[in-house]
Amino acid sequence: MTPLAKLPLSPGTLLESGRRVLRIEAEAVGRLAEALDSRFAEAVECMLGATGRVIVSGMGKSGHIARKIAATFASTGTPAQFVHPAEASHGDLGMVTKADVVLLLSNSGETPELADLIAHTRRFAIPLVGVASRADSTLLRAADVALVLPKAAEACPNGLAPTTSTTLTLALGDALAVAMMESRGFLPEHYRLFHPGGTLGARLIRVRDLMHGPEEMPLVATDTPMPDVLIEMTRKGFGVTGVTEGPALKGIITDGDLRRHMDALMENRAGEVMTPNPRSIGPDALAGEALALMNGPPRPVTCLFVMEPGSDRPLGILHLHDVLRAGVV
């Protein structure tokens, strides 16, 4: 066979090649959306009904897609696991139990390595959801729920490399995952349970997880002499102090307020120096919201008081450094 060689294609030709592939695959995904019918809902209900896990499997490129679908299910509240069909034939069938639902992927529906998995589900009455492009294929004829991919040419110029077909299967997996998320009422706080690391996990941290509580919160009453205010600001180390009247937060004193009242500062009281109505946030707000509020108009601030919901009583204080240390950017 002649070794492959680099052809002298122009940048414009390469660009058009990329656009052609994306158009072909986008059109196919559109056809898939139109082709979905009641069997999609049946597949979702079938997988939601599993008391065990959703076992996802496929061979070759379908296997790579199956791994990704299983990972998406698992990270969005649906217990799932990828099982390699060849390994299943050599003992891993024991991973598939009567409590599970099996999702098998095969573009042709005739992948021989899936035979033992199909037989296992039929023998033990394990629900089987099949995905393939041929309704009369062995896989879809055996499946309890058959999801048929629309006929679509591969984007590969030779029509051989799995391109459009794998994109369709991946998109269908995402559609199933999102439908199950919505059925389960899956919320951002649930998402963070499965994504504690990285920027995404950081952005889903709540203010209450980062704030400093009442013992660390710098507070003075409105009639506190300024020398005592400075002691409180220095002792708590936030560079600010809240000013209260009874349990209610009325204002804040910052370094900027001190500079603006430098003349006769020590003769003043806290209520005379404070800036009223300081920026604040609720304990259940996301850390990302807190960062946006700190950076917002009219000017950036370094601290937010955390307020009891529906109340003017402060629960704690959040510093910019707390948010940044958590990885929120």
Topology:
Blueprint: H1 11-35, H2 38-48, E1 54-58, H3 61-75, E2 80-82, H4 85-88, E3 101-105, H5 115-123, E4 128-132, H6 138-142, E5 145-148, H7 164-184, H8 188-194, H9 198-203, H10 207-210, E6 219-221, H11 226-236, E7 240-245, E8 248-254, H12 255-260, H13 270-273, E9 275-276, E10 280-281, H14 287-294, E11 303-307, E12 314-319, H15 320-325
Parallel strand pairs: 1-2, 1-3, 3-4, 4-5, 6-7, 10-11
Antiparallel strand pairs: 7-8, 8-9, 11-12
Helix pairs in contact: 1-7, 2-7, 3-7
Order of helices and strands: HHEHEHEHEHEHHHHEHEEHHEEHEEH
Q: Could you say how many structural domains there are in total?
A: 2
Distance between the termini: 52 Å
- Global structural class: alpha/beta
What is the CATH architecture annotation of the largest domain?
A: 3-Layer(aba) Sandwich
Main sheet characteristics: 5 strands, parallel
Number of helices: 15
- Average pLDDT metric: 91
Explained architecture:
With 329 residues, the protein is an alpha/beta fold. It folds into two domains: 22-186, Rossmann fold, CATH 3.40.50.10490; 207-325, Roll (CBS-domain). 43% of the residues lie in helices and 16% in strands. The protein contains 15 helices and twelve strands. A five-stranded parallel β-sheet has the order 2-1-3-4-5, sandwiched between helices. Strand 6, helix 11 (226-236) and strand 7 form a beta-alpha-beta unit. Helix 1 (11-35) crosses helix 7 (164-184), helix 2 packs across helix 7 (164-184) and helix 3 packs parallel to helix 7 (164-184). The two termini are 52 Å apart.
